[in-house]
Amino acid sequence: MIGICGVGGVGKTTMVKEVAKKAEEKKMFDTAVMVVVSQNPNLINIQGEIAKILDLKNFGGNNLPTGAGEIRSKILSIGRVLVILDDVWKRLELNDIGIPFGDNHKGCKIVMTSRSEDVCNGMDTQKNFKVGVLDEGEAWNLFKEMAGIPYDDTSHKIDFKSTQKAIAKECGGLPIAIVTVGRALKGKGKPSWDSALEQLRKSIVNNIKGVYENVFKSLELNYNFLESKEAKKCFLLCSLYPEDFSIPIEDLIRYAIGIELFERIDSVHQARNRVYSIVDDLKKCYLLMESEKVECIKMHDVVCDVAISIASREEHSIVVRCDEVLKEWLTKDRLEKNAIISLKVDGMHGLPSDLEFPNLHLLKLDCNAGLPPISLGDLNRGMEEVKVQETQDSFYQGMKELKVLALSDMYGSLPTSLRCLTNLRTLSLFRCRLIDDGISVIGALKNLEILRFGDSYIKELPKEIIGHLAHLKVLDLLGCVVERIYPGVLSSLSKLEELYVGSIFRSWCKVEESKEGASAIIDELASLSNLVALDIALINISFWPRGLVIEKLKKFNICVGISYSHIPVRFSLSNQLQLGVENMSDIIETRLNFLWKSTEILTLNSSVKGLKILCDLVGKGGFECLTYMSVSMLYDLEYLINTAHGVPQSGFPRSSATAGPSDM
Hints:
Blueprint: E1 2-5, H1 12-25, E2 31-38, H2 43-53, H3 64-78, E3 81-88, H4 94-97, E4 108-114, H5 117-122, E5 127-130, H6 136-147, H7 158-170, H8 175-185, H9 190-201, H10 211-224, H11 229-237, E6 247-248, H12 249-258, H13 268-284, E7 289-290, E8 296-298, H14 301-311, E9 318-321, H15 332-335, E10 340-344, E11 362-366, E12 404-408, E13 411-412, E14 426-430, E15 433-434, E16 450-452, E17 457-461, E18 474-476, E19 481-485, E20 498-502, H16 504-510, H17 512-523, E21 533-538, E22 555-560, E23 576-579, H18 584-590, E24 601-605, E25 628-632, E26 657-662
Organism: Camellia sinensis (Tea plant)
Family: Belongs to the disease resistance NB-LRR family.
Keywords: ATP-binding, Leucine-rich repeat, Nucleotide-binding, Plant defense, Repeat
């Protein structure tokens, strides 16, 4: 059995029809049978269709076992038979229909189509072929044919041609969208084309003939067929981003935790596993696709339009306007009904201050400040043209039910009304610059569980936070410039499970005046008894927090004494350990050797003397999880594995690449 899978409307049915036609022309089979299964299969009807094609006389079509027997006998008597099962949504028992397979009849070959790779695998296919969308050239040629645009067209102005090409691009290479939109606009004037482009860009398609019926409803079936409410919600959360955007899976995880999407989740790690499982399912049914960026996913443009269309319905109450800057604030009566809002705005200063949002649970704002990347050497570099965006001080007063607030590209201060968000569980400030000490207002968010300052600048984590963020589970400072963390802040985060600080301590430790204070702050990590994930870089081993219960760390990216070359951010953490040490006693004293059995990526740049056998460092079982290793400057090293008492099964059972040891 062969499976052909791909997103709805990509051309799977057209392909198998062509397969049947070619097989008949070349006389590869004695007969070919093609039936549509659909999402609610009626086996009696399917048997009837097959019996008709096989020309079964007096077919007993109202009894499933009897019909199955007749069909099976007929196929066996024919010899070479091609059976095509189109549009399969769940496992189909072929024996119940009467289709022989495997050793029962090797002359019967089966081809099936499905929108889900999991369904194909569930049908025990020997091989699956994934049908992708058309490339840009193929898509444009098909669109011209459907829209009646001559191949050598010189009659239209350049701006009309650009509109035509833009509409073709909005179809995202999806054949059903190209055919439907092209036919709908065939013979229409430029105003109709301009209107269609505007509607497609805003995901409003009701006025373009056939698009909703043929395209949107077809793709919406995939959404409707998702088995869990959690998967449907995660899919709709992906609509909060612009088209063709690489969506960080970690965002989905933190939003899901914030809106309390999952039941019976006790940790961030469990929530992360749940979201990754859902994302995998969504990819296998082609509602999501891979991104070129690490730990990100994408949505096909048309699928994104469908998601926005579904999200905007009253039962979901989601407003998305993130592809272009909002020119006019939405009407008060409309906004007040919404549960989720994602907008791109021209600064925080233009936002109204008198709105009530009684149902708002998630607010995502791209503030469009145009901030340059943060430069540690010169914090003012590129800031000359950036204007401060002061938020109306009462802006958050009417959002008392808000659980997730995500701000990006903001230059300004946090208003005092942020104190009103006592139900807030996730606060994300990404690529923001906070211009004063107003961050202390965060101390009022007593139910906060996730706090992120990714790629942002903050002057300090102030003392007002101490003792107030008792529920915080994640603190993310990756890519952040923090001038100061007030003593006692980190140690007060008693429920912290995951800490991502990257290299923020390295610059502090290089300055003599701040070394002692930095060391004291780092030592506070030892009091975080619930810490299971850590991303940190330290200038040398002397700054390592000696009291940290290192055995509790399940995920880590630790760099000590080596130039910090951070791999692309992986919040699932690849258990990377980079060590530059001079004395083996330092490793033993810091207990970092307890991490080696779970280390996946090891860089050991050490001048330790007397170490002759590498695996002696970890003992029995070797480096159980290691996939990559780089070793240098171990001049006394002679062996990787101890073979004195017989060859062990493997010192590196999972390793696929070992670099070094160099300079030995």
